Amino acid sequence: MTHMVEVKDLKKRYGDKQAVDGISFTVKKGEIFGILGPNGAGKTTTLEMMETLRPIDGGSVKIDGIDVKKNPQGIKYIIGVQPQTPAFQDKTRLTEVIEMFAAAYGEKVDAMKFLRDVDLEEKAKSFVEDLSGGQKQRLSITTALVHGPKVFFLDEPTTGLDPQARRHLWELIEKVREKGISVIMTTHYMDEAEILCDRIAIMDNGKIVAIDTPRNLIDQLLKRGFKKKQEVQQASLEDVFIDLTGKAIREGA
Amino acid sequence: MTTNWKRSWFTVLTFVRINTKRFFRDKTAIFFTIGFPLIFLFVFGSLNGSNSSVSFNVALINNSDSSFAKDFAKSLKESDTLKVNQEVTTLDEAKEKMSRSELDATIILPETFGDTQQGDAYPSGEAKVVYTQNNTQSGTALSSILQSQFAQINQKLAPSVSPFTVTGEELNENSLSAFDYTFAGLLGFAIIGMGIFGPINVFPELKKMGILRRLSTTPLRVWQYFVSTMIGQAVIGVLAITIMFIVAITVFHLQVVGNWFELALFIILSIMMILGIGLALGGWAKNERQVAPLANIVVFPMMFLSGTFFPRFLMPEWLQNITAFLPLTPVIDGIRLITTEGAHFINILPQIGLVAAWMVVIYIIAFKVFRWE
After folding, report:
1. What residues of chain A lie within 8 A of the CB of B18, using their CB?
2. Which of B11, B21, B213 sits opposite A83 (nearest CB)?
3. Cα(A228)–Cα(A235) distance, rounded to whole angstroms?
4. Does A76 reach chain B within 8 Å, measured CB to CB?
5. Is the Cβ of A152 closer than 8 Å to some Cβ of chain B?
6. Interface membership of A96 toward B (CB under 8 Å)
7. Four-point Cα dihedral B55, B58, B61, B66, nearest 10
8. Whether B59 contacts B73, CB under 8 Å
9. Digit-coded pLDDT (tens) for A203-230
10. A92 contacts in B (CB within 8 Å)?
11. Nearest residue in chain A measured CA to CA from B214
12. pLDDT tens digit string along B198-215?
């Protein structure tokens, strides 16, 4: 099986800081690939180079066989981008947001269908400024998919969301993958990466320090003789929270 | 190729449609594009429109109690040309007011004014016009006005033959009123308001929120974004300017003699050209702080030197020669020539040419300096 995304020896330098220092990885079709790492590790810069937002200093990115550096305009038709903090022009109805993004690709779509995909059909006639943080995230996801992209990028999608909204977003990301779209996301939440990602790359100081499935990475650590001090709890505080407050997504979330 | 072209325009027109709808939902934007210029129109319209005839503010000090002096004083007070200040009765008061330019001059009728001298059959006297050094012009003008009034009276009292006379005749043609100049200038002001202040306020905000950045991950081209803004702005601009014309015609009796179609086309061209300045400034600036000083440098010279608030012919000639080439000058001149002088495109080719030349220059710069974030 060929790779949907191929990153080879990718480099980016800001002044005297090597933000991305020769990283390579591949992503298969329909795979959820997570990039983890502390702040300043180079996660966002890596995404931005792949999304054509930052010039590539060295190395190459190929998506579905198209070279990002040589044909950025071609790449734009096959990627969808979810920014860290989605924002929309105010006084715009949700349906209009969808229509505008579709129009940016020269396409005319049924806006309601895309709103239904993310459970926002009741808000169709609302203005974007009346949406909550979680609703904006969902709208942003569906706008990134209007043109049927092959690769979907998400930059820290669940930061600042309540547990219910997070879980809801995870389900949405799973649904995106089911359509055969490759998902590349960054996150700070380990539980999120463990539940959602098929494979993860851990970055530090512009380099990839480990890349594998979450299960394998944990096994490798255990093989090295790692032991947690505490006994593993059978439930976490979040489990308690969800048990008490339910999984249902909240009004305005 | 043709389907690509169609899709490109579908993109542009969808952006125009939705952004125009957004404009009409935004009360602040409506106020600044339509309401604000209208307020200026009412202020400047009532300043100019009321009375364009010359008048002098004078004090009258009548020291004589002859009946001729009383009649003469009364006739002065009823005159259109003179506004006689009723409160001032002494020369000292008058001098104080003249020193503050509240009065242009003072007319003094001496004690003997209007008395009939021994041996004469008619009254006589000498009126005195007093004025300060700064007001020499009004002083001499006033003297000659009084002179001619006396000449009429003299003729009645002591008829004699006058071989040479002058009569004035009012031509049946309109010349440009002050309001005609003001109105074209106000339109220029409105065009600057929507073309420049619009984008320089909106773009930095869109960049700060990452909205333009998000758009830049789509295949949307800069030209599509620019053209959709141009069309949208032209639609809104024509509407705003139509409202200004309606008010100017109904309230301030503006007479439009030119061709409406040519006027509309010229205004659309002008809006698009001036909008380019806003797109260049707003498209270049990363944030509000960057754009404000630059916008002031660009806007203020045009605001004051292009004939927005006072006509350019009042400037010294060398300054007129320079300001003739400011982008807004041909806009204001062109609008005025079409509106009030009935000029056709063929008559205002210099103005059209200058607007078109600026358009090319401005949009080349705007495309070069545009940044999505």
Report:
1. 92, 96, 99-100
2. B213
3. 16
4. yes
5. no
6. yes
7. 0
8. no
9. 999 999 999 999 999 888 888 888 777 6
10. 18, 22
11. A83
12. 889 889 999 999 999 999
Smallest Cβ distance to B15: which of A51, A53, A100? A100
| Chain A: closest CA distance from residue B28 (Å) | 12
Other Cβ atoms less than 10 A from the Cβ of B5: the count is 9
Closest by CA to A35, choosing from A136, A149, A151, A185, is: A185
Quick check: A125 contacting B, CB < 8 Å?
Answer: no
3-state secondary structure of B234: helix
**B217·A51 Cβ contact <8 A:** yes
Pairing, β B82-85 against β B128-130: unpaired
Minimal CA–CA distance to B281: which of B212, B199, B215, B373?
Answer: B199
The answer to whether residue A89 neighbours chain B at the CB level (below 8 Å) is: yes
pTM of this structure: 0.79
Supply angle C-alpha A28, A31, A36, rounded to 5. 105
Residue type, B105: A
| pLDDT tens digits for range B221-234 | 999 999 999 999 99
For residue B173, what pLDDT is reported?
A: 64
pLDDT of A161: 84
Distance CA(B86)–CA(B71), nearest Å, equals 16
Residue of chain B whose Cα is closest to the Cα of A74: B219
Packing angle of the helix pair B260-284, B288-305 (nearest 10 deg): 150
With DSSP H G I counted as helix, E B as strand and the rest as coil, what are the percentages for chain A, rounded to 5?
Answer: 35, 25, 40
User: Chain B residue with minimal CA distance to A75?
Assistant: B219
Chain B nearest-CA distance from A235, in A, is: 39
**How many degrees, rounded to 5, is the angle at CA A46 between CA A40 and CA A50?**
160
pLDDT at site B243: 94
Burial class of residue A96 in the structure, from the number of CB atoms within 10 Å of its CB (0-12 exposed, 13-18 middle, 19+ buried): buried
Q: Decide if B18 and A101 are in contact by the 8 Å CB cutoff.
A: no
The residue behind tokens 């059959």 is B121
DSSP per position, B27-54: HHHHIIIIIHHHHHHHHHHHHHHS--S-
